[in-house]
Write a structure and sequence with these properties.
With 165 residues, this protein is mainly beta. It has a single domain, classed as Hypothetical Protein Pfu-838710-001 (Beta Barrel), CATH 2.40.320. It is 12% helix and 48% strand. It is built from three helices and twelve strands; from the N terminus they run ββββββαββββαββα. A hairpin with a 2-residue loop joins β3 and β4. It is globular, with a radius of gyration of 16 Å. The model has no long low-confidence stretch (mean pLDDT 95).
Length: 165
């Protein structure tokens, strides 16, 4: 189960280049349900995603180079290319919620900051994954995050890929 929230951002972190990153390219073979292929650096995947916006089933299968490029010829719409930075978020903050256990002192989340290449540039989005819906809903984003776009279909890659640019 993938449970994540998506945000636009106000500003880039000052030390962005100090964080690890991946080059990602992905395309969609289907959007309902989502069937995606992805190249992340030199690794290749076929992903099935169930329905939902914040929480949904996700299954990844490993592909090889030849299978990825064979399927790449069959994608619908645009190929999405982006650079994904992995930014640690130590001591994330959460609203106090009944039934939500406070995280341990050493708890850390990871912000996946996506900087999109053309034709989707200058779009920049941050995603944060959680272990539960309750934690996702209680999460208080860092001050450099802007609008919560978790429930805006226009910011989901599968929707974006099918748009005429």
């Amino acid at each position: 189960m993938e449970i994540e929230r998506k945000f636009t951002i106000k500003e880039l972190p000052a030390n962005l280049e100090s964080y690890p990153f991946h080059h990602i390219e992905q395309g969609y073979l289907n959007v309902a349900p989502v069937v995606r292929i992805r190249k992340e650096d030199e690794e290749y995947y076929l992903t099935y995603k169930g329905s939902g916006m914040m929480a949904r089933e996700e299954t990844n299968l490993t592909l090889n180079h030849d299978a990825y490029y064979h399927l790449r010829e069959k994608v619908d719409g645009q190929i999405i290319s982006k650079k994904r930075y992995l930014i640690p978020l130590p001591h994330p903050t959460f609203r106090e919620e009944k039934g939500l256990t406070p995280p341990p002192a050493d708890y850390e989340l990871t912000i996946e900051l996506d900087i999109f290449d053309p034709p989707f540039a200058p779009l920049i989005m941050a995603e944060v994954e959680f272990g539960s819906r309750e934690a996702a809903e209680a999460f208080i984003p860092p001050s450099w995050f802007d609008k919560d776009v978790t429930y805006c279909k226009e910011y989901h890659n599968s929707y974006m890929a099918l748009q005429t640019l």
